[in-house]
Design brief:
The protein has 360 residues and is an alpha+beta fold. The protein has a domain of 193 residues. The protein has a five-stranded antiparallel sheet, sandwiched between helices. A two-stranded antiparallel sheet has the order 6-7. The protein has a two-stranded parallel ribbon with strand order 8-9. A hairpin with a 2-residue loop joins strand 6 and strand 7. Helix 6 packs across helix 11 and helix 9 packs across helix 11. It is globular and about 50 Å long.
Length: 360
């Protein structure tokens, strides 16, 4: 019941907010005088108590140990002590199992923080809490502490990883061909969740993922080979010769398809940095290929015209992120670019006469 109540909040914001939620915001709505790292106010119903606690933990926790993440050279896993606790003792792995760890990502991955707030404002609630912060711990390598803020993303110990060391960024091995087949049979509503081609994930989850990835232009999940748009020659998918495999559909695999052990029918969205600069004439429509329904609540937010206001209110909570992006004036062009993608997606939904799915 608590989860259902939490998930209903963004819809209530759109339905009841009209004038108050969608009014034009001025600089006075975002005072520089609030110096808290996480500037929480009572009028942010899309952020749960758990989100707020994790954001404060990520932004203020002291680094007490570190570990490398296999096959991810530019990502560091760190254990954090909540501010003022300083409880040294448990092993690094034990701390992570207790939910006291974070991934420190590249400075270029700042869009992860934007993605977290977009996820909550849309009522998807599938991504992990993330903040932008600077680090000063002597435990960390020099490049992590020289001043540039980095995204800190909560490490969820309940995410299910495959035992295959070369494929541990999946809970489920899934090819593009199998993915398209399972979309057609409507797993969990018209077909049994566990009977092939289904993989235990409810059909409505893929619409949430596709909407989220289209708005952010995340390709490294449903389209790791960059088959749905024209990549730059410097893209990893080109340099690693993945793009050249696009002609052979049977070779294409999905990545970062993750679920929690305790809730394996729902997806968890990780690595959401996406493409903030992707031009509107090079958008990746492969991300919505085969999707025949989208989440009603998220679509209602896109239709409402409230997205800019809701995102500015939400992003203001993360002071370092807000300042690093130049505040409201710096963020508006970015948000308007995502809003434009939303309008293109809404037109796609109208053109294809696609269904809207109420939340489970």
């Amino acid at each position: 019941m608590d989860r259902r109540k939490a998930l209903s909040k963004p819809e209530a914001v759109v339905k009841t907010g009209g004038s108050s939620w969608c009014r034009s915001l001025t600089e006075k709505d975002f005072p520089d005088s609030d110096h808290r790292r996480i500037r929480i106010s009572p009028d942010l119903p899309w952020l749960s108590e758990d989100d707020i606690q994790k954001m404060e933990f990520l932004s203020g926790g002291e680094v007490v140990s570190k570990a490398r993440v296999p096959a991810h050279g530019q990502v560091l896993q760190v254990a954090l002590d909540p501010p003022a606790h300083q409880q040294h003792g448990p092993l690094h792995s034990e701390r992570c199992q207790q939910g006291l760890c974070s991934l420190i990502k590249r400075t270029d991955d700042w869009f992860e923080v934007f993605a977290f707030h977009l996820d909550r404002v849309l009522g998807l609630n599938r991504s992990l809490p993330a903040v932008l912060r600077t680090f000063h711990s002597e435990i960390l390598p020099y490049r992590y502490i020289r001043g540039n803020p980095r995204p800190a993303v909560w490490w969820d110990p309940d995410i299910q990883h495959l035992s295959d060391g070369d494929n541990d960024q999946n809970s489920i091995p899934l090819s593009w061909v199998q993915y398209q087949k399972l979309l057609q049979v409507h797993c969990g509503s018209e077909a049994d969740l566990k009977s092939p081609p289904c993989v235990g994930v409810h059909h409505s989850e893929w619409g949430r993922l596709a909407l989220f990835d289209f708005l952010l232009q995340v390709n490294d999940r449903l389209d790791r080979y960059c088959c749905g748009f024209t990549p730059e020659p410097t893209e990893l998918c080109v340099e690693n010769l993945l793009h050249s495999k696009c002609a052979n559909t049977k070779e294409l695999l999905l990545v970062h398809i993750l679920v929690r052990k305790a809730d394996p029918s729902r997806l968890v969205f990780i690595d959401n940095a996406g493409r903030p600069e992707q031009s509107s004439d090079n958008l990746n429509f492969r991300l919505v290929e085969g999707i025949d329904e989208f989440p009603e609540r998220a679509v209602s937010v896109l239709r409402s015209g409230c997205l800019e206001t809701l995102l500015l209110r939400s992003l203001y909570t993360d002071r370092i992120f807000w300042d690093s992006q130049g505040g409201a004036s710096g963020l508006r062009p970015l948000i308007q670019s995502v809003e434009h993608r939303g309008k293109i997606l809404l037109q796609h939904i109208r053109d294809k006469k696609l269904q809207l799915e109420r939340d489970l």
